[in-house]
Amino acid sequence: MKNFRIESLILAIGLLLLGICIQKGFKSFAERDRSVNVKGLAEMEVPADKVTWPLMYKSLGNDLNALYDNIKNSNKIITQFLIEKGIDEKEISINAPEIIDLKAERYSNNDNSPYRYNVTTVITVTSNKVDLVRSLIAEQGELLKRGIAVTGGDYRYNVQYEYTGLNSIKPQMIEEATKNARQAAEKFAKDSESELGKIRHANQGQFTITDRDANTPYIKKVRVVTTIDYSLED
């Protein structure tokens, strides 16, 4: 009888300990499931550090040999203009001319045109001297005095500005985005009467570079959004 009581007591203590362990396990499991998902935004405006400037002009005529000589001379004049203004020769490239035979166009309405050939020539400046190129774009009318009319309006030959220094600002922007995410998580934890725990999962997000606006494409807006999961504790 005595042994039975001892065994019953041991069994009761064991069941009690088991119940405590199960309760703690459920509590721990529930706590592990408590988390908050937040996003942190970082934005920065930076000046473009690379520019691609296509100078496009057209030539009309009936004699291909004469057109060739004219284009060769025009290319020389444009190149000299750019070099005089501070553009390096290695930053200048001359594309092959695009020739359209107006008389050979099947659906052309140019039967009454006095010219047979329409030639498009493009000289491209690719440079890191963004400010210099911008000033030259404003001065390109000077080429009219030298007998060359640089034309625009063709979307294929728009000026393009780029920012290539992303790697140099990535750490700073990630740090700022992470800080902003943590501030949001701390506010959520405070409102829910919890303590903010460790990071459970983090996603850096993708960097995007866009024009600040349509009027200032030479100023870029860099943006990144990080997504972070924090655990919440009582």
Write the layout of secondary structure elements.
Layout: H1 2-32, E1 35-47, E2 50-61, H2 64-84, E3 92-94, E4 98-101, E5 117-127, H3 130-139, H4 142-145, E6 160-162, H5 166-191, E7 195-203, E8 208-211, E9 219-233
Antiparallel strand pairs: 1-9, 2-5, 2-6, 3-5, 4-5, 7-9, 8-9
Characterise this structure.
With 234 residues, the chain is an alpha+beta fold. The chain has 2 domains: 33-47 and 165-233, Translation Initiation Factor IF3 (2-Layer Sandwich); 50-162, Protein of unknown function (DUF541), domain 2 (Alpha-Beta Plaits, 2-Layer Sandwich). Helices cover 39% and strands 32% of the residues. The chain is built from 5 helices and 9 strands; from the N terminus they run αββαβββααβαβββ. The protein has helices spanning 2-32, 64-84, 130-139, 142-145, 166-191, and strands at 35-47, 50-61, 92-94, 98-101, 117-127, 160-162, 195-203, 208-211, 219-233. Strands 2, 3, 4, 5 and 6 form a 5-stranded antiparallel beta sheet that branches. Strands 1, 7, 8 and 9 form a 4-stranded antiparallel beta sheet that branches. Strand 8 and strand 9 form a beta hairpin. The longest helix is centred in the N-terminal third of the chain and has 31 residues, at 2-32. It is elongated and about 115 Å long. The model has no long low-confidence stretch (mean pLDDT 85). InterPro entries: 26kDa_periplasmic_antigen (IPR052022), SIMPL/DUF541 (IPR007497), UCP029033 (IPR016907). This is SIMPL domain-containing protein. Pfam families: SIMPL.
